[in-house]
Design goal:
elongated; 5 strands; 53% helix; alpha/beta; single chain; Transcription Termination Factor Rho, Rna-binding Domain, Chain A, Domain 1
């Protein structure tokens, strides 16, 4: 990627880093904290104000990605097909999402299953007023906190920041879960480009 960019920006010095570092710099700036990405997938790191000092491995949508859009999508599909949803919510899911099981299975085993699963989070957002949906989403966030954030040394003494569409659109539920589990609320940023620019202006 650096080589490709260098052909366009011929008079610039290129530094290509992980998106986690961008998330940490955008949210923490130059202070210690925990930076989390919750979008189609999920990831997190502990940041000391200069660099990432710890990262719980992200195992992807097949095994991990707790708290992500794909995780929420999987839980919705399980709840519907295992007949665990309340009847009214199941009817809505059938009408809005699962009209044809064959099509659903084709998507799950298609070229971009994680993207398809994450798209189902829109259903959860539309029906977030339903207690069952809210509890399902909250459970996904609890899994993320327990399997990732809780593992960082001194996690409850540091602000926990979030970037990504899932964190942004479900921030009310996420804030409730953070508070219930005793974590410090940090920043919520949907698209961190502006804050990342601010970081580089501070450190140039």
């Amino acid at each position: 990627m650096s080589a490709g960019l260098s052909r366009i920006f011929t008079h610039a010095t290129m530094h290509v880093e992980h998106d986690l570092l961008a998330a940490a710099r955008a949210t923490c700036l130059m202070d210690p904290g925990i930076a989390c990405i919750l979008g189609t997938g999920s990831n997190s790191c502990q940041y000391d104000g200069k660099q990432i000092i710890d990262n719980i491995t992200s195992l992807g949508y097949l095994v991990g990605d707790e708290g992500s859009g794909s995780h929420i999508g999987k839980e919705l599909l399980r709840a519907y097909y295992y007949r665990e949803m309340p009847a009214s919510l199941a009817t809505a899911f059938l009408n809005e999402v699962a009209e044809d099981k064959t099509e659903v299975m084709d998507q799950i085993y298609g070229p971009k299953p994680n993207v398809y699963l994450a798209s189902l989070a829109r259903f959860a957002l539309r029906h977030l007023h339903e207690p069952y949906t809210r509890k399902l989403v909250a459970g996904c966030f609890v899994s993320f906190l327990e399997r990732h954030v809780a593992k960082y040394q001194g996690a409850k003494r540091l602000p926990v920041h979030f970037v990504g569409s899932i964190a942004w659109h479900f921030r009310e539920v996420l804030e409730e879960v953070l508070s219930a589990k005793g974590y410090q609320k940090g920043k919520w940023i949907q698209q961190p480009v502006r804050e990342l620019v601010a970081y580089h202006l501070l450190t140039r």
